[in-house]
Amino acid sequence: MDIRKTQVLRDILKDKSLLKDKCYIDGKWVDGKSSINVTNPVDESVICSVPKLGTAETRTAIEAAQRAEGLGQEDGQRAGRASAQVVQPDDGASGRSGADSYR
Fold first, then answer.
1. What are the φ/ψ torsions at residue 54 (nearest 5 degrees)?
2. pLDDT lower than 70: segments of the chain
3. Contacts of 94 (CB under 8 A, 6+ apart)
4. 32 in the Ramachandran plot: left (φ > 0), alpha (ψ -120 to 50) or beta?
5. Do 64 and 23 form a contact (C-beta atoms < 8 A)?
6. Residue 13 — φ and ψ, nearest 5°?
7. Is the CB of residue 50 less than 8 Å from the CB of residue 23?
8. Which residues contact 22 (CB under 8 A, 6 or more apart)?
9. How far apart, in whole angstroms, are the C-alpha atoms of residue 61 and residue 68?
10. pLDDT score recorded for residue 25
């Protein structure tokens, strides 16, 4: 499909539910008091509109992202500890093999 052709995004999508006119912030769909048009740079036709959010919504989004990042770091630390416990193959010196050589 040639995106350069003038065609509104909602007409291109097979599943119309994928196109949202709200922002997803901290587990909720948020609408703004006004909207901003998103335009096709080729012909400047309006593709869709998105909410114009303010300071409060921006702050909420940043705080939610920081909380999520902290959760991701905790998961990463757990994964790091788990990978540090990977069993090394037997080198033959101990007479035991695999996991038994580390007990």
1. -105, -165
2. 1-7, 9, 74-103
3. 101
4. beta
5. no
6. -70, 135
7. yes
8. 29, 30, 31, 51
9. 10
10. 94
Q: Report the Cα–Cα distance between both ends of the chain, in Å, rounded.
A: 60
* pLDDT value for 4: 46
For 34, the 3-state DSSP assignment is strand
> What are the Cα distances from residue 82, in Å, to 20, 70, 72, 77?
39, 19, 15, 9
Q: Other C-beta atoms within 10 Å of 23: how many?
A: 16
Q: What is the DSSP string of 47-96?
A: EEEEEE--HHHHHHHHHHHHHHHHHHHHHHHHHHHHHHTPPPPP-SSSS-
Whose structure tokens read 């035991």? 96
Both structure tokens of 54:
């303010």
Look up residue 96 and give its two tokens: 């035991």
CA pair distance 9, 84, nearest whole angstrom = 47
Quote the pLDDT of residue 72. 73
